[in-house]
Amino acid sequence: MSNQYDIADDNALVIDINNLTKTYQTGAGGISVLKDVNLHVRRGEMVAVMGPSGSGKSTLLFILGLFQPPSTGGYKVAGVDVLSLSRDQQAIFRREMLGFVFQSCDLLENSTVYENLELPLIYAGVRRRERPDRIREALGMVNLEHRLHQPSNRLSGGERQRVSIARALVNEPEFILADEPTGQLDRENSLRVLEYFTKITEEARTAMVVVTHDNMTAEHCTRKCVLTDGYLNG
Ligand code: ADP
Ligand code: MG
């Protein structure tokens, strides 16, 4: 591998979070969102994180994706202390290892579906002539090939969510974080996405953390945790 993460072992420990806390500073002092979170995810595991609205699920996922730092605690990815990496090295981690499905989808609004999916491939240095096939394949997983050249701002909510999933998968990441990925999908499209998640978890031995409210989504996971009062149990 071109990076420093050693995940050659089929059951390698990918996510190793210990005694993690997060306090947001607000005008009225601090609010303590994560109090003592421990989470260990191996390759081939797809872990559901459930919990009421406002319990800190998105915060936890942003910390796992290195989009924001914890207040205290340790976080290793495949044995690497990622919190002590430089910004450049953290960017390499995101480009080479991670697929992230944002709750808000976060598509480039004035670009087409094709352009949205091409961006991670450009960052990863995939050659131009290889990109169309990779993009069509990723869109096929979410049944959206027919939207290839549609501008993102003309998609429905469910289509946006499926494009956002395809964009997270197009790079064949080792490690996927998905925030309510089926929240806007009907049953048929949810099942399609979940079956695909299961397939890459089993065959590509991906490590996945899926934040969800939905029982069907949680049932497709290999294990379930619940975030309550700042603690992750299960
Ligand atoms: P969930 O995804 O489970 O709904 P979040 O992680 O989005 O929960 O939010 C957890 C709590 O942290 C909420 O009370 C929210 O208002 C608060 N929060 C989230 N982001 C910030 C922020 N940037 N600054 C201050 N408070 C925040
Ligand atoms: Mg959330």
Secondary structure topology:
Elements: E1 13-26, E2 29-42, E3 46-50, H1 57-64, E4 72-77, E5 80-81, H2 87-97, E6 98-101, H3 113-123, H4 131-141, H5 157-169, E7 175-179, H6 187-203, E8 207-211, H7 215-219, E9 223-228, E10 231-233
Parallel strand pairs: 3-8, 3-9, 6-7, 7-8
Antiparallel strand pairs: 1-2, 1-4, 4-5, 9-10
Helix pairs in contact: 3-5, 4-5
Summarize the structure.
The protein is α/β, with parallel strands linked by helices and 234 residues long. It has seven helices and ten strands.
Can you describe this structure?
It holds the Pfam family ABC_tran. This is ATP-binding cassette domain-containing protein. InterPro entries: AAA+_ATPase, ABC_transporter-like_ATP-bd, ABC_transporter-like_CS, ABC_transpr_LolD-like, MacB-like_ATP-bd, P-loop_NTPase. Residues 15-232 form the ABC transporter domain. The protein is an alpha/beta fold. It has one domain: P-loop containing nucleotide triphosphate hydrolases (Rossmann fold, 3-Layer(aba) Sandwich). Helix content is 32%, strand content 27%. The protein is built from 7 helices and 10 strands. α3 (113-123) runs parallel beside α5 (157-169). It starts with 12 loop residues before the first strand and ends with a strand. The mean pLDDT is 94. The structure holds adenosine-5'-diphosphate and magnesium ion. Adenosine-5'-diphosphate (ADP) binds at residues 24, 26, 31, 33, 51, 53-59.
Low-pLDDT windows of residues: none
Shape: globular
Main sheet attributes: strand count, strand direction, barrel closure: 6 strands, mixed
What is the distance, rounded to the nearest whole angstrom, between the alpha carbons of the first and last residues? 33 Å
Radius of gyration: 17 Å
Order of helices and strands: EEEHEEHEHHHEHEHEE
CATH superfamily: P-loop containing nucleotide triphosphate hydrolases
Q: How many beta-strand elements?
A: 10
What's the rounded overall pLDDT mean? 94
What is the tally of helical segments? 7
What is the CATH architecture annotation? 3-Layer(aba) Sandwich
Task: Specify the helix fraction band.
Answer: 25-40%
Q: Please indicate the count of domains.
A: 1
